[in-house]
Every structure is written in C-alpha cells, then in structure tokens.
Amino acid sequence: MAYSPAILDHYSNPRNVGSFSATDSAVGTGLVGAPECGDVMRLQIRVNPTTGLIEDAKFKTFGCGSAIASSSLATEWLKGKTVDEAMAIRNTQLVEELALPPVKVHCSVLAEDAIKAAVKNYQEKQTTHEPVLETVGAAG
Amino acid sequence: MAVKLPIYLDNNATTRTDPRVVEEMLPYFTEKYGNSASRNHPFGWEAEASVEDARAQIADLIGASPKEIIFTSGATEANNLALKGVAAMYKKKGNHIITVSTEHKCVLDTSKRLERDGCQVTYLSVDTNGRVSAEQVRAAMTDKTILVSVMFANNEIGTIQPIAEIGKVCKEKGVLFHTDGVQAAGKVPIDVQAMGIDLMSLTAHKMYGPKGIGALYVRKKDPRVRLEPQIDGGGHERGMRSGTLPVPFIVGFGAAAELCRREMPEESARTFALRERLRKGIMDQLPESYLNGHPTERLPGNVNISFAYVEGEGLMMGIKDVAVSSGSACTSASLEPSYVLRALGVGDELAHSSIRFGVGRFTTAEEVDYVIDLVVREVNRLREMSPLFEMAQAGVDLKSIQWAAH
User: Pairing with A107, which of A3, B263, B316, B346 sits 20 to 30 Å away (CA)?
Assistant: First the structure.
C-alpha cells in the first residue's frame, strides 16, 4: 500500500506533538482508543477564556502512520476555532485531506472521537467551575 | 560505504532467487522445453532426466530417496495434500488429527475444513517460547488418531519444534507424522529418517529458488504412506498429484536445494552471526524491547521483537526503506493482531508492537548496522510521540486504565 504525500508529511514532521497539564481548567483532554486495538490518541485543546477560541492544541498518538497523521492534522485544524466549530469537524474531511485508504478510515474516526472527547472534557470543567482532576483514560 | 536502499530483511516471507539458480533454469525455457511425460522423443527424455536429477537434489537435502519427492505448486498445496490426502485415505482407521495453534494458515484452514467434513482436530497450545512438547502430542493421541502435523519452524517467530522427539512418539504409536518444513529446509539440518518424519512440505522460494514450485516428501517404506490425490489427471507423481511438471521451476528447486545443502554449515553460521548482531544492536539500545519466540531453538536468520509503546505498522512507515513484517493488525481489515504471538501469551498491545526481521543469504553487515541505527532512532522518535510511553514514564499502570475500546 503506497501512502499519500500528505500522510508521509504529517508522519515525518508531525505538528503539535506534546502535552498540556490536564488539570489546567482551560485545557480539555480527550484520550481515545485502546492499546490492545493498536491505536491510542490523546488530543488536548487550550481555550482562551475571554475569546472562547482554541488557541493551542497538542497530541500524542500510539498507532500507525495514518493515525499519527490524522491526529497531527486535527491539531492544526483546531487552532483558532471555537469549540462549536471544533465539534463540526468530520472524519470524512480528514480522510479527504490525507487521502486515507478505506482500510485506514477508522484512524480518522478515532481523531474525530478525540476532538469530541477533548471538547466535552473542557466543557465539563467549565460547568463545574472546579478544576477537575483527570482520571487519565476513560475518555472517549 | 553507502548502503543501497531499500534493504530486504523479509526472508521469512520469500527469498531472492539465487542468480546461480536462475542460470540453471534458463535453458529449460527456450532450449530444453520438452514435457517430462513425453516418453517417445529426446525432448521428453531430456526433461525427464533433469526432473529426476532435481528430485535427487531435493531428496539429498532432507535424507530422503528421490522417489519420495512429489512435486506440487508450493507448500500450501503440499500441506493441503498431506492433510486431506491422509484424512481421506485412512478414514477407515480413524478421523483424529493433532496439530498446533501456531501453524501456518494453510494447515489451520485445511484442518477447519476437515472438521467440517467429519474429522476431529486437536489444536495443541504452545509455551511462551512457541514450543509444543512430545509429551503433549502423546497425551492428545487417541485410538482414532491418524496424523500428527507439527511445523518444523515457525514463520513468524522462528521457533523450532522438537521434531525428532515428536517423530519418536508417532513411531511408537504407529501414527503418521507430517511436518511443514518450509522455513527450516535449507536453513537447518533435516533428516527424515533420524527424525521419524513421514510427510514433509517444502517450497523452493524460501530457499533461494523460484516461486511456484514446492514438494511433499511422502515416505515410501516403514511405513509406506498412501495419499488420496486431490488433483486428478494424467497420473503424474506416482498418481498423487497430476499435472504437467514445470520443468524449469523444478530444475531451479533442485539447484537451490543443492546450494543450500553444500553451503549450509557456512551460511547458517553467517546468518546467525548477522541475526545476533541485529538483535543485540537493537535490544541493547532500546529498553522495553522484547524478543518473541525461543531464545536459542530458533531459525538462524529470524528475529522478532516487540517494542513497547510503539505500534508496529507505525514503525514500519518510519523504516520504510527496510522491508520487514509486523504482527500488527493495522494492515488487515480485522483488529486482531498476530494469532501466533497471541498463542504465546504475548499481550495484544505487544503483539501490535512487533516487527519480524528475516536475515538471509544476501544480507550484509553494513545493511544490518544501517537497520540497527534506523530502528533505534525511529522507536525513540515514536516513543516521544506516544501517550502510552509518557504515561508509563509518569508511573501510570497502563493496565489500570479503563480503555474505551474502539
């Protein structure tokens, strides 16, 4: 199976690899997948409290090249979006941009799940007004 | 010295046809193109003589006599013929077959079909190194057992089974013993007499011969093994496998077998040394890398390593100039990783993290050193990108987490 130039680019030069403190109230963390399934993505957003815009995003992924590329691209797209706009990102857009083959569509689904989990985690923190201590995992 | 890319380290999948083998084959396409079954003219006689020479070369490699070699299209067909042929021929005697959970798919799927057709099949489990014992085989035998099929060496993890001991148990019990010898033939010494083997599947392309030709060794005396043919026709190959013989391929198979026999002592020492250089070079530099398969009872050229926190197919993309294979399921439609690694009790997450390296006749020390550096660099890079590595470094027990299964 030959990989698209877009996948290879994100795999070789992944954007926004890293972590934020999961206890920061401005940070939302999504951890999806499972090691025994061969894919785990952790995607984090940091939201500016005054503008409501996602000002930064980071990821770490255990998975194949397409999973790494899907999460890398997702962090790029998240920056500058509102959380509502983030929720509107669809896996099919990732499939198209990265030219993922059919057997790799599940990687884009996982990235969409990670975005939704991160936003949900961020929103839960805002309603409780308390810094929520992450039980790392369980999200998704 | 610059290494030429890509590097081929997938010699358990197939091997390069040795140029010396190709040289032997070439005249049989355009000059000596007779049908070996043509009994009335020189073209046929010449072809027949060459086929018989090749039969002897292959028999010599495994301590058999030439008449015991039945040519097939490859080892998949040979395994099918052995299992189905015995099951059909000996059905009055019994219907029980014993095999192993880590066999190649062509043995397992054939066994499944035989089960649907009324056979009873016992699938022996293996230990954490991938081995079965002769005692397990003995314990599984019933008075209905007609065949034991245990592969000589495993294609994924290289583990070599205690074939001579299993052969002895089968002799004692009067049960036929088949072994899939595809990975082992030409790499380690095989003697069908000393090892008590009654049937053995072989293929040329794993021993530097051409693809498309294999053989089944079928014992002719003590006992004389009989098989129900699976392909009917002109009665070639003692009636066990009809079809015009592909003479150029058979000549190539014979030449490949002879080269393996002559060069085995030197070649197995060389591939073993390169494999150990590769294994140590990688594992000494990478903590939490685990060898899959038996540490010593394994094929000289095979090494299979799991790299914790890194997914196998992801790693393969990072080392894409090196041809290897992975036990990760990411390439297949299912989410199941390698059934062989699972049978050893390797956890699914480590099965997803496995890479098989197959060193062969044409592998060089420069290539091995290049691969060591590349693998170490890429595993470290991917670990920096892995949430599992970060969590493990932070002291989180990954098993304590309730993962959302995808």
Answer: B346
pLDDT in tens, B331-377: 455 567 899 999 999 998 899 999 999 999 999 999 999 999 999 99
Do the Cβ atoms of B331 and A1 come within 8 Å?
yes
Listed residue (B306, B310, B285, B294) closest to B373, CA to CA: B285
A residues 72-101 lying closer than 8 A (beta carbon) to B: none
A64 is annotated as an active-site residue: no
C-alpha to C-alpha distance for B200 and B178, rounded to whole angstroms: 6
Tokens describing residue B170: 């089968």
CB B304 within 8 A of CB B357: yes
Interchain CB contacts (distance < 8 Å): A and B:
107
Using CA atoms, how far apart are residues B218 and B232, in angstroms rounded to an integer?
A: 18
Q: Using CB atoms within 10 Å of the CB of residue B303, give its burial: 0 to 12 exposed, 13 to 18 middle, 19+ buried.
A: buried
For residue A58, report the phi and psi dihedrals to the nearest 5 degrees. -140, 160
pLDDT per residue as tens, chain A (140 positions): 678 999 999 999 999 999 999 999 999 999 999 998 899 999 999 999 899 999 999 999 999 999 999 999 999 999 999 999 999 999 999 999 999 999 899 999 999 999 999 999 999 999 875 555 555 544 43
Q: Which residues of A touch B402 (CB under 8 A)?
A: 137-138
Check B401 against A3: CB less than 8 A apart: no
- 3-state DSSP assignment of residue A81: coil
Q: Do A31 and B406 touch (CB under 8 A)?
A: no
